[in-house]
Specification:
alpha+beta, 10 helices, 7 strands, elongated, 364 residues, transferase, Heat Shock Protein 90
């Protein structure tokens, strides 16, 4: 199975997250920071050109200002990127004070070089430096605020995911323990098997790892279904269909299928008076895996859930794969069907950790 909580890899992830939270610095080497700086540079060049008196060569003036501002911005960003690792290890005061000073000093040097070749008016030296001071402080403040907001968003997403792992449904735990207690008297061997399956489920719920293979996810699903079949008896049948090939070894976010199957049992199978059925079908479609979870609905409508199981899994898929993954849930006659499209390649790092609302798939 997966590494136990508290393993060295888990501790390393916690330490990395703690280091990121301590430092207020943005990622000066990142593509997003580069894009933001370039956008600010373009807006600044346009603003200075439009505010400049006279009706001379407008495009030439814009090109000259853009060249000046782009050179200062890109070289300053390069310097900060090279110093980033040292800055993160330094005191907090240095991390706040030094980054704005780099573009200010850089502006002074470029202004001096432009004056030496008569491309800049020496009388504009002080106004240019004054503008550089103001814009450097404003730009760095913007980058700091943007970085703080993004890190807070990621921290909230991590906290919600940890809450999801810590909140297996109490009624499932109580019912399972009652089932085990009854089996201890009638079928001790079966009681031991159910206990081991239950232990695997809680190990996965409390494990801090974000991903595992599709095969491991299906093993958890099988363990959960064995527990429920022991509790519910022959009140439902299970139809399974998935390939036994290398596609089962693909990485995927943990606890994606399990909450959906648990949701199908609670809202579709358990309330039914007659015998229900649950179908799980997985097949390959080019570069994606298609997963379909289909369950019968009870004759008398059960209390409707809030849909947060599907919503939370959808957010986890979007967090891991962006727009390349999808989840659709709908009623189909006397059945409820959930369909997932999961890419067969997991990015090394999520594009974003956006998410709103409750991300706890176990809270329905």
């Amino acid at each position: 199975m997966r590494p136990e909580p508290g393993s060295s890899s888990g501790n390393e992830r916690v330490d990395e997250g703690r280091a990121d939270r301590v430092s207020p610095l943005p990622d000066f080497c990142g593509a997003e920071t580069l894009l933001r700086v370039l956008m600010l540079a373009v807006l600044l060049a346009l603003a200075i050109t439009l505010l400049r008196p006279g009706t001379g060569d407008w495009l030439g003036t814009l090109a000259l200002y853009a060249l000046f501002i782009f050179w200062v911005a890109l070289t300053s960003l390069l310097i900060l990127c090279l110093l980033q690792r040292l800055l993160r290890r330094g005191p907090l005061t240095l991390q706040i004070v030094l980054p704005p000073l780099v573009p200010i000093v850089n502006t002074a040097l470029v202004q001096h070089a432009a004056e030496s070749v008569q491309l800049a008016d020496p009388e504009l030296r002080l106004p240019v430096l004054g503008i550089a001071v103001i814009l450097s402080l404003v730009a760095m403040h913007y980058l700091y605020l943007q970085t703080a907001w993004e890190r807070e968003t990621r921290a909230v997403a991590r906290a919600r995911e940890q809450a999801m792992r810590a909140r297996l449904r109490p009624h499932f735990l109580y019912n399972s323990m009652n089932t085990i207690a009854g089996l201890c008297r009638t079928d001790p061997a079966r009681a031991e098997e159910v206990t081991l399956d239950l232990a695997d489920l809680f190990r996965a719920a409390f494990n801090g790892a974000d991903h595992h293979t599709l095969r491991e996810e299906l093993e958890l699903v099988e363990g959960y279904l064995r527990v429920e079949q022991t509790r519910l008896g022959d009140r439902f049948r299970i139809d399974r269909e998935w390939p036994e090939d290398p596609s089962l070894e693909q990485e995927m976010p943990s606890l994606v299928l399990l909450p959906l199957v648990e949701n199908a049992i609670q809202h579709g199978i358990a309330p039914a008076r007659g015998r229900g059925h649950l179908g799980i079908r997985i097949h390959r479609e080019r570069d994606t895996l298609s997963v379909e979870i289909r369950n019968s609905l009870p004759e008398v409508a059960a209390p409707a859930g809030t849909g947060t199981a599907s919503d939370a899994v959808r957010l986890r898929l979007r967090h891991a794969f962006g727009d390349r993954a999808s989840l659709h849930a709908q009623r189909d006659g006397d059945e409820f069907v959930v369909r997932l499209q999961i890419p067969r390649t997991l990015p090394d790092r999520p594009d974003s950790e956006r998410g709103e609302g409750n991300t706890d798939p176990w809270n329905c």
